[in-house]
Amino acid sequence: MNAAMAAGDFQPTKSADRVCQLLAALAEHGSMTHAEIAQRLSIPKSSVTGLINTLEAHHFIARDESGRRYMLGPQILTLAQQYMAGLDLARIGQPVVDELMRESGESTALSIASGPDIVVVAKANCDQPLQRTMQLGERAPMYATAGGKAILAFLPPAEIERLVPKDLPPVTPRTLKTRRALLKELAEIRAGQLAYSREELIPGIFAVGVPVLGAHGAPVASLSVAVPSVRFTPKHEAHIAAAMRRAADTLSGRFGYRKATVPGAKHAA
Prior knowledge:
The protein is α+β, with helices and mostly antiparallel strands. 44% of the residues lie in helices and 19% in strands. It contains ten helices and nine strands. The chain has helices at residues 3-6, 12-29, 34-41, 45-57, 74-86, 89-104, 146-152, 157-163, 179-190, 234-254; strands spanning 32-33, 61-63, 69-72, 107-114, 117-124, 139-141, 195-198, 205-213, 219-228. Strands 6-5-4-9-8-7 form a six-stranded antiparallel beta sheet, with helices on both faces. Strands 1-3-2 form a three-stranded antiparallel beta sheet. Strand 4 (107-114) and strand 5 form a beta hairpin. Helix 3 packs across helix 4 (45-57). The chain is elongated.
């Protein structure tokens, strides 16, 4: 055992803490020199050398073309991909769906895109005598649903064009009729309004939707709350909107989204 180890300089807990600090610093700054790392971690350059050599050997960090600056290495991406692949959306989302149902008092669903449709992967039905009953595996056209619109709004224009026909097949008399009308709503959603389906899928049912965003801001799913029109008062709508923003923030955060809030809630006209 050398003097540094005897003095506790490389105690396992301290070393692990320094590894975490180093990786976090590189993530924040993009790249750093040996001296910058030592200054940031407030440790001797000799200690930094040991950390760098170990992490570089295992590809957790790498050098830039100059060989003088260090950045995160390919093993970080491998771990991130394995983490994301291992996430079970329904399992992670179910507690959030349950809580949103309790807060809103209305039936709630978590849905994903499947071609031009959305599919319910987690749900919580309320115990109101009059309710919209959600079913696992239920499918519906994205353009006729609040959850579908919430996802569409954050897709690239070319993807929207691929998924949505110019003339929209009607589901109810209140379904939007054209892609042009839908695009106008999607722009409003991107600008901060929640997504709405105003009896466009089921007569007598209003729905509110919000996207669940991933690490790069792309939609991975959506949350929606369905309300019978007789209960969809401005006061109830505002209460639901606030609960949905909190739920979407929580679930988006679990998928790596770091913005303070996800698109929020101007009230429907």
